[in-house]
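Shapes recur. Our protein:

. . .
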Amino acid sequence: MIDIMSVELVSHLHNLAGQEMTFESGQYLFRLGDKVRVVHFIEEGSVHLVRHQADGSALILERAAPGSILAEASLYSDAYYCDAIATARTRTLALPKREIRARLATSPGFSEAWTKYLAHEVQRARLHAEILSLKTVAERLDAWIAWRDVHVPEKGEWKLVAEQIGVSPEALYRELAKRRRPKGDHSTLLL
């Protein structure tokens, strides 16, 4: 994701008085109800934003990767509305909420870069919702491929794709196997 975030915004973020923090896999960056003091910019690793349901199940709201601003909506909240859990060793730049808000009020360049990032995140969320509304594994996979501009994951990463498109790994593997099987002259097969 770092490639889609503007270099300008990354530069602005690094010019703020942030603190580098490291979290081990399974460690919480923050918990539901914690007071919002910082906003995390993920430089390395991955974090899940999780909300626990009444039945005990966990709903993953976001799978944040390097280049993500974590829980950016919390900038305008007193408390976090979910848990943030590192899913790998993660390094963030923790940026003081008050400093980001002050910079947004005084720097048109920072404000524009921030707004562009948020607009992209809205577009990404809408596309993800659209993918999840599709009925078949094939339709979801085709939409995911079009969204990712045909970046084919490495061998061990397909399970993550299954999570992203809301299907079981087994269903995705069956669909991939269908696409690998030659059926006449189908030069448009994915793999």
In short: The chain is about 40% helix and 20% strand. The two ends are 23 Å apart (CA to CA). Strands lie at 19-23, 28-30, 38-44, 47-52, 58-64, 69-70, 83-86, 90-96. Confidence is low (pLDDT under 50) at residues 185-189.
